[in-house]
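Page 37, continued from 36.
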């Protein structure tokens, strides 16, 4: 188990305990030191600051009419409602788009509008507006198109809409290009000329502000505050879901929107939402009610909504939220869960393929951005995989699929890509510097999509990495994981876990707290989730605590009972059969430095001996000749173990796994001795060894026994004879 990632911990336990500010906030607010440290990490430098943060006293909802073109959009929509014009909501196929379509449709229906919606098919039409979609809507008699979560780059489509006798209102939140569409209104806080004070609303957040403005104009006798309260009570649940799913910063008014929305979801009477939450409980083997948090939305609810647009039709998810009763909603919710299972299977296939490409060809020292391509990857899944890759390696990534590009025609050579970035590298700006190589692109600072011609891909990869090198220092390029503070075993309590809810909702700008524990013993391991995840049991102080490693198998971890480890984690409360217990959700885990250094010394010692260094020049350190040269009995123990495991069809082992099995059987082995035994057995053709991976991170081998009818003389091994001679061992 090698040190893959650099750990950056904001505060050690000693620093936390010694901080006057932390102790003062802890004392005045009656909270534990780690909770006070979390508040300091979030910029609270006095007890008053901390109290305001927890009570959300400094955040406020801004006047929607501060947004450029908001008044034009409101009056044009109300005119269309009054004149009974046919309105079509044109949305995106992700969660932000689905929730945007849903709340605007529900509101316009409630005020008597003739309204329908249109969401393009991801695989057939791709992202955003297209000429084909616009002409189809014109043929169907549409008079006013209102985009949600899309449209800011639809300059050509806006011109076509006008030529066809329709009008266009754009509501969006994506980065603007140089030219914005010529439309009746373009409502986007990211417009360069927009004075709106908060630029980081989700697409559904922009639609939420539109609804507040519509309600204010329709109810002139009421104050803006009263209108906002009505709209919030009716729609803030869906606004929160879209905001969390689109990974928008949870600060300013987003923090208020998500906080209130989570409260609404917890007591929702929306049939579609009730049934979707119920469906997630039903497919869980624990079938317990989950606390409604931003994490629950992001990891449980949002993927099921997203799955429809990724591999089926986003309209399925919209219909869930438009369902008038639970009977209608229930089968739709179950279908979304089924589609999500399909998405997970496809995702796993792409992940394996992508990881193989990275291992084979990516140069991390040269290229800070991972750019991968494939002919078969599903367009709708590559964004999720890009997120996983960026999380795993700590660097920006772009996956490009040429799925279907062999069909010929004008688009026969086009690939669709999806990318994710890290703090310090604005992905949309990076794509902008390569825009001459792209057919189209768009998105946010941390997430973007693109379309590219196959022949432009090599130059795009080169130029994007050149751009990234200018923005990311060498330190930034190296994978690094950040934690808020170190904890002691005594800090791992139910009381501490409960206090973490005070800081909700979590998300970008207010991430879930991450902690570090040093020098804890790994007591037990078990595969769960059909072998996809691993549950560890850690001995922390005098207690045994469960720790979940999601998407990591025992082979991935290469850790075993008895190992001493450091663990980076989030602190969670697991609820099962009305019982609550502490659970760690592992972000990274590694051997303690002392155990790592000891094992690394053995690896270095073996390599020194294997390289032919004379024994007199070999620093043995803590080892003696008896620790290096195996006995005949030890050869027999290793050979018998391998034969037994191979009979059980266990063929693949890391060196650490073999050492663990040997020690579990009561034989004390070390790395040096085991490696020489394996090499000698291979030389004697008693076993065959295939190297699967052999690097500083992980040594993994596949073994096979070679049948023999006669007893083998170990002294026929040149490796073994030389080892005994070099170290003067007589057996």
């Amino acid at each position: 188990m090698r040190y893959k990632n650099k750990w950056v911990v904001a505060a050690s336990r000693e620093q936390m305990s010694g901080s006057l500010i932390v102790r003062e906030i802890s004392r005045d607010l009656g909270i534990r030191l780690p909770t006070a440290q979390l508040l300091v990490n979030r910029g609270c430098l006095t007890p008053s600051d901390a109290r305001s943060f927890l009570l959300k006293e400094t955040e406020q909802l801004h006047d929607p009419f501060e947004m450029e073109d908001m008044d034009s959009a409101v009056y044009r929509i109300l005119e269309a409602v009054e004149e009974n014009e046919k309105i079509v909501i044109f949305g995106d196929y992700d969660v932000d788009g689905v929730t945007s379509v849903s709340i605007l449709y529900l509101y316009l229906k409630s005020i008597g509008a003739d309204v329908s919606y249109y969401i393009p098919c991801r695989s057939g039409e791709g992202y955003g507006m297209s000429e084909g979609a616009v002409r189809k809507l014109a043929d169907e008699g549409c008079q006013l198109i209102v985009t949600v979560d899309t449209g800011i780059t639809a300059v050509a489509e806006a011109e076509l809409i006008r030529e066809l006798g329709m009008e266009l209102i754009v509501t969006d939140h994506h980065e603007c290009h140089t030219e914005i569409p010529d439309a009746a209104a373009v409502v986007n806080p990211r417009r360069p000329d927009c004075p709106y004070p908060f630029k980081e609303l989700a697409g559904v957040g922009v639609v939420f502000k539109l609804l507040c403005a519509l309600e204010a104009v329709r109810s002139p006798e009421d104050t803006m505050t009263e209108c906002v309260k009505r709209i919030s009570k009716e729609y803030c649940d869906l606004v929160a879901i879209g905001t969390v799913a689109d990974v928008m910063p949870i600060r300013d008014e987003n923090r208020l929107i998500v906080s209130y929305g989570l409260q609404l979801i917890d007591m929702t009477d929306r049939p579609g939402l009730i049934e979707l939450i119920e469906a997630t409980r039903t497919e869980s083997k624990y079938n317990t009610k989950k606390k409604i948090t931003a994490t629950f939305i992001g990891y449980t609810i949002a993927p099921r909504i997203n799955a429809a647009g990724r591999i089926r039709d986003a309209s399925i998810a919209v219909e869930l939220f438009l369902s008038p009763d639970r009977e209608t909603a229930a089968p739709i919710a179950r279908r979304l869960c089924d589609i999500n299972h399909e998405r997970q299977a496809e995702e796993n296939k792409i992940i394996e393929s992508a990881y193989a490409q990275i291992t084979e060809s990516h140069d991390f020292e040269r290229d800070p951005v991972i750019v991968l391509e494939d002919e078969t990857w599903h367009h709708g899944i590559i964004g999720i995989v890009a997120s996983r890759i960026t999380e795993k390696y700590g660097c920006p990534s772009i996956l490009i699929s040429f799925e279907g590009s062999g069909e010929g025609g004008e688009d026969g050579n086009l690939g669709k890509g999806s990318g994710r970035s890290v703090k310090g590298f604005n992905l949309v700006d990076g794509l902008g510097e390569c825009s001459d190589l792209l057919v189209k692109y768009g998105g946010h600072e941390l997430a973007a999509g693109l379309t590219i011609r196959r022949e432009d891909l090599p130059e795009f990869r080169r130029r994007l990495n050149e751009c990234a090198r200018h923005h990311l220092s060498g330190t930034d390029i190296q994978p690094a994981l950040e934690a808020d503070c170190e904890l002691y075993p005594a800090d791992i309590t139910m009381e501490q876990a409960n206090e973490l809810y005070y800081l909700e909702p979590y998300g970008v700008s207010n991430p879930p707290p991450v902690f570090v524990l040093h020098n804890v013993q790994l007591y037990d391991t078990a595969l769960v989730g059909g072998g996809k995840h691993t549950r560890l049991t850690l001995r922390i102080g005098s207690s045994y605590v469960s720790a979940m490693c999601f998407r990591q198998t025992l082979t991935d971890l290469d850790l075993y009972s008895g190992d001493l480890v450091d663990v980076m984690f989030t602190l969670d409360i697991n609820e099962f059969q009305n019982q609550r217990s502490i659970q760690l959700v592992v972000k990274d885990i590694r051997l303690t430095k002392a155990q790592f250094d000891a094992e690394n010394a053995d690896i270095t010692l073996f390599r020194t001996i294997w390289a032919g260094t004379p024994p007199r020049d070999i620093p043995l350190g803590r080892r003696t000749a008896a620790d290096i040269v195996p006995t005949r009995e030890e050869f027999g123990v290793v050979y018998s173990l391998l034969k037994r495991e191979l009979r059980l069809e266990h063929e693949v082992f890391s060196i650490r796994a073999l050492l663990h099995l040997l020690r579990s059987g009561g034989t004390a082995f070390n790395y040096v001795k085991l490696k020489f035994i394996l090499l000698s057995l291979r030389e004697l053709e008693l076993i065959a060894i295939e190297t699967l991976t052999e690097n500083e991170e992980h040594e993994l081998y596949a073994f096979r026994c070679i049948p023999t009818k006669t007893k083998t003389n170990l002294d026929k091994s040149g490796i073994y004879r030389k080892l005994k001679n070099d170290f003067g061992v007589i057996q």
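Residues 596-726 form a domain with the Arc Repressor Mutant, subunit A fold (CATH 1.10.10). Flag for discussion at group meeting. The chain has four domains: 6-12+484-591, 64-229, 362-477, 596-726.
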